[in-house]
């Protein structure tokens, strides 16, 4: 059994360890789960991820409960099938999907998982990020996956649901060393129907579009970052019936061979225009790095690099990246993160090499 220390990692460490344990068949025991956090131990979405991957692998588990700082996980083998998991309250269903999707490389038949919980909650990628940024990029390298969103759910009540289906997949290497010009920008704004009278979704979407089109952030267009004013900007503003009020806006930058996403949640007392500006500011910061993917996607792609090989230029190195890379190497994957004048590049040999 592989002994792992979760003191320096967060939920990403738990999800990556689960995915690689399932794919490799290596049993794991994680101690000091989220030990460096103010509220250490497993949270509802971590428990749900362990349950979901556990059911998909007929794993033997122990110590899996909310607040637990130690658990073990011993998979039998990746199985297909269909089942549902309750994440609880507003635990992130998107983060559970992150743990499940890599199992596609070891499946022999489809796996369908329906998750109930929060689709758009703090400290987690909103479901539009998963649907419009991460999954399209992974499909381009061979992941066979479909996502159906049934209902949106905001913090603190949740009440959202989605279904993820993955099929046996053979991956090609990721080649994301350079970023091409932004070909299209898409803005997805969604708010609870109780906020429609205040036009919250429209205000979110239009503020993002206007900030980009009028160049009010200053250096929006430069030759070095290859952002063009002619990039098409599409906006979508919608409303949904939800169990509690909320709003979310996601900006997707399509660079042809790569994608990046930037998002923000509405908050009580904060004007929609201010929320939208947070998204554009994050887009501007990413643009200045020259990296083909955003910071969060770069971290999440490390496990896929281990499985498929290739190279990805990251916006910058972070503690998350270093901790995640060290964990992946514990499973004997040759993942390297190099910081040079050309930027931070994560790389791994493909399985055929």
From TrEMBL:
Residues binding ATP are 98, 296-300
Keyword list (alphabetical) reads: ATP-binding, Cytoplasm, Ligase, Nucleotide-binding
In terms of one coarse class, where is the protein primarily found?
cytoplasm
Recorded hits in PROSITE patterns, A to Z, give: RTC
Q: Does the keyword Cytoplasm apply?
A: yes
According to UniProt, the reaction catalysed is: a 3'-end 3'-phospho-ribonucleotide-RNA + ATP = a 3'-end 2',3'-cyclophospho-ribonucleotide-RNA + AMP + diphosphate
Give the top-rank taxon of the lineage listed in the UniProt record for this protein: Archaea
Q: For the RNA 3'-terminal phosphate cyclase insert domain, which residue ranges apply?
A: 178-284
- EC numbers: 6.5.1.4
Active site located where? 320 (tele-amp-histidine intermediate)
- Where can this protein be found? Cytoplasm
Q: Establish whether keyword Lyase is in the entry.
A: no
Q: What's an example GO cellular component term for this entry?
A: cytoplasm
What is the documented function of this protein?
A: Catalyzes the conversion of 3'-phosphate to a 2',3'-cyclic phosphodiester at the end of RNA. The mechanism of action of the enzyme occurs in 3 steps: (A) adenylation of the enzyme by ATP; (B) transfer of adenylate to an RNA-N3'P to produce RNA-N3'PP5'A; (C) and attack of the adjacent 2'-hydroxyl on the 3'-phosphorus in the diester linkage to produce the cyclic end product. The biological role of this enzyme is unknown but it is likely to function in some aspects of cellular RNA processing.
Which family is annotated?
Belongs to the RNA 3'-terminal cyclase family. Type 1 subfamily.
Name the record gives this protein:
RNA 3'-terminal phosphate cyclase
């Amino acid at each position: 059994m592989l002994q792992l220390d979760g003191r320096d990692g967060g939920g990403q460490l738990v999800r990556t360890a689960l995915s690689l344990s399932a794919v490799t068949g290596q049993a794991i025991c994680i101690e000091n789960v989220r030990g460096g956090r103010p509220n250490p131990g497993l949270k509802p979405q971590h428990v749900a991820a362990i349950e979901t991957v556990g059911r998909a692998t007929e794993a033997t588990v122990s110590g899996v409960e909310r607040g637990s700082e130690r658990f073990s996980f011993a998979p039998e083998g990746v199985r297909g099938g269909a089942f549902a998991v309750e994440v609880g309250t507003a635990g992130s269903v998107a983060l559970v999907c992150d743990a499940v999707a890599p199992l596609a490389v070891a499946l022999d038949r489809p796996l369908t998982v329906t998750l109930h919980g929060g689709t758009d909650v703090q400290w987690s990628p909103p479901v539009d990020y998963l649907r419009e940024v991460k999954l399209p990029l992974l499909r381009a390298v061979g992941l066979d996956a479909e996502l159906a969103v049934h209902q949106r759910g905001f913090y603190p009540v949740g009440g959202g649901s989605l279904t993820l289906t993955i099929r046996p997949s053979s991956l090609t290497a990721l080649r994301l060393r350079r970023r091409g010009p932004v070909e299209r920008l898409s803005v997805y704004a969604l708010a609870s129907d109780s906020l429609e009278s205040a036009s919250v979704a429209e205000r979110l979407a239009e503020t993002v579009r206007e900030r980009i089109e009028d160049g009010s952030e200053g250096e929006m267009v430069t030759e070095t970052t290859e952002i063009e004013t002619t990039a098409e900007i599409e906006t979508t503003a919608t409303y949904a019936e939800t169990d509690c009020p909320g709003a979310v806006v996601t900006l997707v930058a399509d660079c042809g061979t790569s994608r990046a996403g930037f998002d923000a949640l509405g908050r009580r007392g904060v004007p929609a225009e201010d929320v939208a500006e947070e998204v554009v500011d994050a887009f501007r910061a990413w643009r200045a790095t020259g990296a083909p993917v955003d910071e969060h996607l770069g971290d999440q792609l490390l496990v896929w690099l281990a499985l498929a090989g290739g190279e990805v230029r990251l916006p910058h190195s972070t503690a998350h990246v270093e901790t995640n890379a060290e964990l992946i190497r514990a499973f004997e994957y040759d993942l390297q993160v190099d910081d040079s004048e050309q930027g931070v590049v994560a790389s791994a040999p493909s399985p055929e090499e």
